[in-house]
């Protein structure tokens, strides 16, 4: 009879541990989702700002049509991207196109002096900083989650519960370009 109680006790402890591990992994997974949603909100703000910036530049640099078209094309691609890997690749392209757009202002003194352009460029610079901070928060959440599903003894239950490895918001080969906020000079 005492052996039965011991076995029952061990089973209860294992079940309680499994519930605890599951709840911890769910919390970590939710944190990753929330962190990506934060990035998504700021990227949407960035996407909304870009047409205004392009329209402002159009008036001053009409013959720079290729650069303006590249920015719009990259923005549309970024807006339709899904998941951290696609979003980060599309945003890398968009950052490069925006860098070229901002560089145009150096060639057009009247554009640099335009108050609307100054405000939009300032908002863009601020958003870039917020996106970088959100990206760091997301990657930290992913790191904690991935560590959580790989650590023993939760690793024994993670696969059973459907918890799989998450991808980082990776900057890839253009890391040094993207990590620096765009330089806006007036």
UniProtKB/TrEMBL annotation:
Domain of life: Bacteria
Stored InterPro entries: LemA-like_dom_sf, MamQ_LemA
Pfam families: LemA
Keyword Acetylation: no
Membrane-spanning parts: none
Keywords on record: Membrane, Transmembrane, Transmembrane helix
Bilayer disposition of the protein: Single-pass membrane protein
Subcellular localization, as worded in the UniProt entry: Membrane
Keyword Transmembrane helix attributed: yes
Gene Ontology cellular-component terms listed: membrane
Sequence similarity: Belongs to the LemA family.
Official protein name in the record: LemA family protein
Organism of provenance: Bradyrhizobium forestalis
Lineage, opening ranks: Bacteria, Pseudomonadati, Pseudomonadota, Alphaproteobacteria, Hyphomicrobiales
